[in-house]
Design brief:
Chain lengths: ~180, ~220
C-alpha cells in the first residue's frame, strides 16, 4: 500500500479535489477486494466493498494527515467486516437448487480458507450448522436432518456461533 | 462496443463527482467544544444558586476534595479516551482499563478516609431518601455531557462502538457527579461511594445501551 500517496490523495480529497478522490477510491476499491476476498463469501464481496467505500466517503473528515492512511483504512474495513458478520446472524438463507450453473471456484476456495480458520475456533456443532446453513445454503430444517440437531438447536447454534465469530474478530481487531 | 462498468465503478464515479470539501475532525476541537459545554453547565448550575450554603466549611473536609478531584480525574480521563476513540484507528480498550484503575484508586482513597469512622449505623449514614434525590440530580446533570459527546461520537467514526459508548457514559456520569459535588450536602465517603457510584453506573449503563444503536454508521 502506498501510504504517502494515498494519504496525499485523501488530503486533496478533503479539500474537494474530485480527480484525486476518484484515483484514491479506485485504488482503495482494489485493496478492499483483496482484503475481503479471504474474509467473506464471494456473494458478499461486492456489497462489502461498496459499503466500505460509502463509509469511507461519509467519514473522510476523520482522516488525520499527521497519521498514516493504511491503519485508518484498515480500521474502517475491519469495522465493516465485523458489522457484516453480525448481520449474517439475522439474515435469511435460501436453499440452493441443484441446477445452478457453477463458475470458477477459486475465489470461494480461498475465502473458505480464512473462514475455515475462524470456524475452527467454534464448537463443532456450531461450526457445522453455520457451514451448512450460512455457507452452503441449506435450510434450517435440512441442516437439522443432516446433523441430527433439533431445529431449535440449529438456530441457537447458528446464533451463538455467529456471535462468537464476531467476538473473535473483534478481539483480534483490538489486539491488533 | 464498450463494456458496462461494474457497480463499484458507478459508485466511485458518483462519490467523486459530488465531492465537496470537508472540515477535518480534530480531537482537540471536539475537546474544546465539550469543555465549553460542560463549563456553561457548571456556571448555570452555580449561577442558579444551587451551591451548598456551607461551602466554606465543607472545603475544610478532605472528603470534599477527594470527591471533587476524583470525579474530575475520572471525567477527564474517560472523556479523553472517548474523544480519542472517535478516530477509527484508535481503540479505547487500553484507556478504559486505565479509567477502571483510576476509579478503583479513588474508591481506595475514600475507604482510607473513612476507615477511622467505622461501619456503625450504616443505614443512617446511607440516608436512602436523600441518596435517591442526589442520584436523580446527578443523572439529570450528566445529560448535557452525554448529549454533547453523543453528537461528537456520531460525527466521528468509532470502530469499537461498545467500548467507546462505555467511555462516553463514564465521562458524562462523572461530569454530572462533579457538578453535583458543589450542591451535595454530604461529605460522608460511604454515602458518596454508594450513591455517586449508583448514579454513575446508571448513566454509564444507559449510554452504553443507547449510543451504539443511535450512532451506528
Amino acid at each position: 500500500m502506498a501510504d504517502a500517496d494515498w494519504g496525499g490523495l485523501m488530503v486533496a480529497a478533503q479539500s474537494g479535489d474530485a480527480g484525486a478522490y476518484r484515483t484514491l477510491l479506485g485504488e482503495v476499491g482494489l485493496w478492499l477486494r483483496r482484503y475481503y476476498h479471504h474474509r467473506l463469501p464471494p456473494a458478499q464481496l461486492e456489497d462489502a466493498i461498496q459499503d466500505t467505500l460509502l463509509a469511507l466517503h461519509e467519514k473522510r473528515h476523520t482522516y488525520d494527515p499527521a497519521r498514516p492512511f493504511p491503519p485508518w483504512l484498515a480500521a474502517i474495513a475491519r469495522y465493516k467486516w465485523i458489522d457484516r458478520l453480525r448481520a449474517m446472524k439475522g439474515s435469511a438463507t435460501e436453499a440452493l437448487t441443484a441446477d445452478i450453473p457453477v463458475g470458477d471456484h477459486g475465489e470461494a476456495v480461498s475465502s473458505s480458507l480464512s473462514l475455515d480458520r475462524l470456524l475452527g475456533e467454534l464448537k463443532p456443532a456450531q461450526a457445522e450448522v453455520i457451514r451448512l446453513v450460512k455457507l452452503q445454503g441449506l435450510s434450517v430444517i435440512e441442516a437439522s436432518q443432516r446433523t441430527g440437531q433439533t431445529v431449535s438447536l440449529v438456530k441457537v447454534n447458528i446464533h451463538r456461533g455467529l456471535g462468537r465469530l464476531s467476538a473473535l474478530v473483534q478481539r483480534q481487531a483490538d489486539a491488533d | 462496443m464498450p463494456t458496462e462498468p461494474m457497480p463499484t465503478e458507478f459508485l466511485i464515479d458518483r462519490l467523486s463527482a459530488g465531492l465537496k470539501p470537508v472540515r477535518r475532525r480534530s480531537a482537540g476541537a471536539d475537546g474544546a467544544i465539550i469543555g465549553v459545554l460542560c463549563l456553561v453547565e457548571l456556571a448555570l448550575v452555580l449561577g442558579m444558586g444551587a451551591m451548598r450554603p456551607d461551602m466554606t466549611a465543607a472545603m475544610r473536609h478532605p472528603s470534599f476534595w477527594w470527591k471533587l478531584a476524583g470525579l474530575a480525574l475520572i471525567a477527564a480521563a474517560s472523556g479523553t479516551v472517548a474523544l480519542r476513540s472517535f478516530d477509527p484507528a484508535r481503540s479505547p480498550h487500553r484507556g478504559l482499563r486505565g479509567v477502571v484503575a483510576i476509579v478503583a484508586a479513588c474508591l481506595a482513597v475514600g475507604w482510607a478516609l473513612d476507615a477511622g469512622d467505622g461501619w456503625a449505623a450504616l443505614v443512617v449514614r446511607l440516608d436512602w431518601r436523600q441518596g435517591v434525590r442526589c442520584l436523580v440530580k446527578m443523572v439529570l446533570l450528566s445529560i448535557p455531557a452525554a448529549l454533547g459527546l453523543g453528537v461528537l461520537m456520531r460525527r466521528g467514526a468509532p470502530t469499537s462502538m461498545r467500548a467507546t459508548a462505555w467511555a462516553v457514559g463514564i465521562a458524562a456520569a462523572a461530569w454530572g457527579a462533579f457538578v453535583f459535588v458543589f450542591a451535595c450536602p454530604s461529605d460522608d465517603p460511604l454515602y458518596i461511594a454508594v450513591w455517586y457510584m449508583a448514579a454513575c453506573l446508571l448513566v454509564a449503563g444507559s449510554v452504553r445501551v443507547a449510543l451504539p444503536r443511535l450512532v451506528r454508521w
